[in-house]
Amino acid sequence: MAVSGSTSVGEIDVSSINLLKGGVELDLNGKYDEATCFYQEGTKLLVEAHKAISEKCKLTEHRQQLQEHLDRPGAQDRTNFLSQEKDDAKKVTKIKIEENSTGHSYDKLFGHYLHQHVTSIEVDDPYIRTDFQINNFQRFCELIVGKKIPVKTIVLKTKLINSHQKESLEKIKKSLDRNKIELTIEHSPTLHDREIRLSTGIVIGLGRGLDIFHECEILSQEYYNLDLRRCHDTAVTITHKNLTRDATS
Hints:
This is MIT domain-containing protein 1. Residues 103-240 form the MITD1 C-terminal phospholipase D-like domain. InterPro entries: MIT_dom_sf, MIT_domain_contain_protein1, MITD1_C, MITD1_C_sf. Pfam families: MIT_C. By secondary structure, the protein is of the alpha/beta class. Helices cover 48% and strands 15% of the residues. The chain contains nine helices and seven strands, in the order ααααβαβαβαβββαβα. It has helices spanning 9-28, 32-52, 56-70, 75-88, 106-110, 131-147, 163-178, 221-224, 241-248; strands spanning 93-97, 120-124, 153-158, 182-187, 195-198, 202-206, 234-240. The chain has a seven-stranded mixed sheet. The chain starts with 8 loop residues before the first helix and ends with a helix.
């Protein structure tokens, strides 16, 4: 929309404000690509209106309004995030974990991707069955809570086989509720693949799912520090959904 003889500055004002408000709403919902488009178009209209204004007082008001949107908190951070996301969409990171090796906590493996732009997480893991495996999932949830990121929902898809398993997962659900995170548990009897999908598009492929650690005693030091735990021989692959889609199309 450009400034023309038939388009008043007031009309452009309304259009730009609506676009900027729409950008804020998309921003809050984690739709950063769309929000950026709205911000750019809204700012462009403000600049065009700014050029068309002749009254000094109105010009000053517009200049302040334009600067407020350009300086909106987090604007540079979002720009950096979108740039990083484009880079992530072009590469595949593979991590090989050797048998009995240590230093492979969930945080070290993929904690870097659990940042302020992640709003929802999906976990596909058919083997969240035993107490030890359930504890692994609990530790994963603790990592998310500890990161203090704006995750609102976690969806766990797994094979539900007994009442003890269901009761344990319900306890984790209640604990997450207290941290304002909704856990949805879905039963899939045919599930085989193991992966974590983040709302940012990052896909974390887990050869063994979250069950990468050897079991240990409850009161041992490694029980409380995942970096001290001995690991199974497995691999972790981190990529972006766009790259995955291109590879399969």
